[in-house]
Fold this sequence. Notes:
Layout: E1 4-10, H1 15-24, E2 31-38, H2 45-51, E3 56-58, H3 64-76, E4 79-84, H4 93-98, E5 103-107, H5 119-125, E6 130-137, E7 147-154, H6 161-183
Parallel strand pairs: 1-2, 1-4, 2-3, 4-5
Antiparallel strand pairs: 5-6, 6-7
Helix pairs in contact: 1-6
Amino acid sequence: MVKKKACVFISGSGTNLKELLKSTREYNFPININYIVSNSKNAKGLKLAKLYKIPFRVINLDKIINLETILKELYKKNISLICLAGYMKILNKKFINRFNKKIINIHPSLLPKYKGLDTFKRALKNSEKLTGCTVHYVNKKLDSGKIILKKKVFIELNDSVISLKAKVQAKEYRAFSESIISIFR
């Protein structure tokens, strides 16, 4: 099987990146991670890039010169898919247009509910019974692209932001890989 080349954008700890890397070891998994982009030089996920010897770049995509640089690098590396794995910046419209329908994101809520930040806090405040995660294509509107897959978790009375985050992240780790498999079926 010839695997497609993928790039993962990160901002923080890299837990979703770590799970994606595990999936890439499976023979039938359709992608390899060939490049990692971070908007933070302190992102812990960059340690994984170094450990697995995956080329990476720390970049500010708000700057036009950096946007053009990263686009050239992605095209040069024949990247077929960009995965936003805990990437905490909004991609600009020009970038999204250039990689139309080739960017996916994992979001910690059952979209369309709770777009943006503080999803766990808002779900708890509103006494929701269910939450979860959604993998979707990225478009020009925040957390509004076509949904690929959702995974649900029940919210218990004693859940806190921390416990709820842990439950949802456990679902995210499988949801991202399952979504990628479904895209390339």
